[in-house]
Amino acid sequence: MATSGTATWNPSILEIFEEAYERAGLEMRGGYDYTTAVRSFQLLVSELANRGLNLWTYDQDTLTLVQGTASYSLPADTVDVLDGVIRTNSGNATSQADLVISRTSFSDYVATPNKLSQGRPTQYTVLRETAGPVIYFYQTPDGTTPYVFYYLRLRRIQDAGTALNTPDVPFRFLDAVIAGLAYRIASKRVSSMALVPQLKQVYEEALELAQSEDRDRSSISLLPYIQQGF
After folding, report:
1. Are strands 147-155 and 132-138 parallel, antiparallel or unpaired?
2. Which one of 92, 111, 207, 220 has the largest count of C-beta atoms within 10 Å of its C-beta?
3. Could you tell me the pTM of the whole model?
């Protein structure tokens, strides 16, 4: 028999909710069942953001720096900044250069004596505020050349949206998401309380399996440093 020849299955939010209810020994019937499942889903993706660095939520972004301006608001859905470089002469094939910039703690930034000192930024600090992260650069950008901050950020997983939307989750995490949702839904219903320990275990196992696969497969070499003499 021939195979389908496709690998595009991606369940809708409604299908995910229905599967989660069935695993919890329940049936989704009324509008409130859907509403409470949305809340559980949103809390679940919040938990996933705290569980580790989910590779599919990595985004590359840029920030054009302005002379004399040290702080900038990042996109509101930014969880954190993972890495970044300062690019000078952006777009110039002969002189464009990406220069290393290190991250420091906000305490170290606060302790900087002269924050108005201008030059090429060599350090950045991220203050994770409620309305969205704010990034601070030191030194404050000068006007020697245009500076562009190229950075890798961790973004929030998108909201559930409507019942016909598909989740902002790769297929390899679908089972873990459904298992986690079933566990959360069951914990709300007296009739399903007996299933909670089992559903919790299934969720943890499915999430561990998905996270162990969600990794960078590039090789890594570790070279010990041995100090010679004193």
Report:
1. unpaired
2. 207
3. 0.85
| Alpha-carbon gap, residue 48 to 38, rounded angstroms | 15
- Can you tell me the distance from the alpha carbon of 20 to that of 208, in angstroms, rounded to the nearest whole number? 18
Q: Which helix (H) or strand (E) holds 23?
A: helix 13-23
| Bridge partner residues of 155 (DSSP) | 78
Average pLDDT over residues 119-133: 94
How many angstroms separate the CA atoms of 125 and 140, rounded? Answer: 12
Long-range contacts from 41-48, C-beta under 8 angstroms, 24+ separation: 41/13, 41/16, 41/17, 41/160, 41/167, 41/177, 41/181, 42/159, 42/160, 43/184, 44/177, 44/180, 44/181, 44/184, 45/156, 45/157, 45/168, 45/169, 45/177, 47/180, 48/157, 48/173, 48/177
